[in-house]
Amino acid sequence: MTVARSRRSRRLLRVAVAPIAVASAAGGMAASASASTQRAQALTPVAIELALVPPKMIFMGFYVAKSEGFFRRNGLNVQLLAQPTGNQAIRGVAAGEGVFAAGGGDAVAASDLHGANLQVIWTYGVDDLSLIGVKSIHSVSDLPGHTIGVTDKSGPSYTMPVIAMQKAGVNPSKANYVILGGRPALVGALVNGQIQAAAFHVDDGLNVLSKDPSLHVIAQMSQVAPSFLYGPLAVSKPYAAHHKKVVQEVLTSLIEAQRWMYSHSSATIALAITDTQEPPAVVRGAYRILTKNHDWVQNAGTMSKATVNYTLRVFKSVGVIDRLIPYSTFVAPQYASTVLKQIGTVKCGTTLCP
Question: Per the CATH hierarchy, to which homologous superfamily does domain 43-126+228-352 belong?
Fold first, then answer.
């Protein structure tokens, strides 16, 4: 065989081998894609309805659990469905769009009386609401005669000022209430003088205070009603009855995520700036307050009988519900108890964290 012929043979050999190599690589990629698809299919799909658009920082545990992979590591493929209000989040579950809902307890209670068949299984946060008003409103007693902005006539933005006025001994019906479309609208309405007071979460509260130095905090929900149940995560009772393991996996993911948030400040703040769309300075300030007060729940939350029954009495007194709901109908603490037996509890100083 001549040298030229030998070289040509080697070239032919390389050409012949190349398709085999490509086919082998394609086969490997197909196998990898197939394995990835199988893993994705193995994850349990879950839809969670959330109040508010954009979310407030008190809700960040849900977004962290998704973006940082806590849901996925616990076998879940979670879809977060954000709604403008807690009532709409609850309606989403009642309509079958989701099986979990995070929003106001008032919406859960009202929906239960109308056959929604939901039950509170955890509370994701401690109440971070503050009532903020113009400088002419010196105290809660001055609210009658002024206009208060609310997102609806049953949610926390309505419940808080009503509770505060009742406690101060003034008639809540003497105040005017304007329903505005979503929490971001409350900020602009207060700054522009359309309303004279509104209840804000810590981040949009800091935001509105930064826009107008004459505005001030009139009352804080944690002081007005320290035993109030805030931040419930509710689940469809029929779903929970048939998917107890999934319910526990959701709670495990959320509790692990919220514990992570306390030790990963930079990452949590970066995610919150993106998700809440609040200014970075506002997010950093809100993070400091929420972590200092242990507002992101790290254990079972606040579902004691005393807290739940007090809250239900408040809902009845403000007209959200027309009759009381039994404790065992409204909450199911056993799911969180089971999870904490598996992952342990966390202390805040010398006492158990909420």
Answer: Periplasmic binding protein-like II (3.40.190.10)
